[in-house]
Amino acid sequence: MNKQDSIAENLDMLARLAARLTATPVATITIYDRDCADDGDVQTIAHNATALDKAWQAANQDVDISQLGSPRTAVAQHLGLYAAVPMRNGDGSTIGMIACADDDDRELSAEQLESLKHIAALASAVSHN
Question: Which domain of life is it from (predicted)?
Fold first, then answer.
């Protein structure tokens, strides 16, 4: 297995962990092609790891999963739950986003949000390793 495949496999595993810990049917880890300006101007996507419940996807075909890495476009999809945490590099620039979603109208618990932040830090480390 080459380095890129290993990184992709680890990010996929972290997306599955994020979905499980947040009790959501979908979680994504989006890595931008280059650093994103802090004003939220999203750059092209270099990698998108997704954990997705197939039954949820079938019932929510109008949801564009690929847009969860951009909070501006994700909130326009009118999900019941959308939570996102930026991934940052060593100098604090945004390099990606970890997000989870559900059609149930609820908020993440403090513990779930903290888990998402930890997974964002791990995904940042994996993507720069």
Answer: Bacteria
What residues make up the domain containing 106?
A: 3-127
Q: What is the CATH number of the domain that holds 73?
A: 3.30.450.40
Q: Which of 2, 73, 61, 1 is nearest to 26 (CA)?
A: 61
Name the pTM for this structure.
0.86
Contact call for residues 15 and 23 (beta carbons, < 8 A): no
Residue 10: CB atoms within 10 A of its CB come to 18
Encode burial over 52-71: b for 16+ CB neighbours within 10 A, e otherwise.
beeeeeeebeebebebbbbb
Interval 20-71: pLDDT, tens? 999 999 999 998 876 444 555 545 677 788 999 999 999 999 998 888 888 8
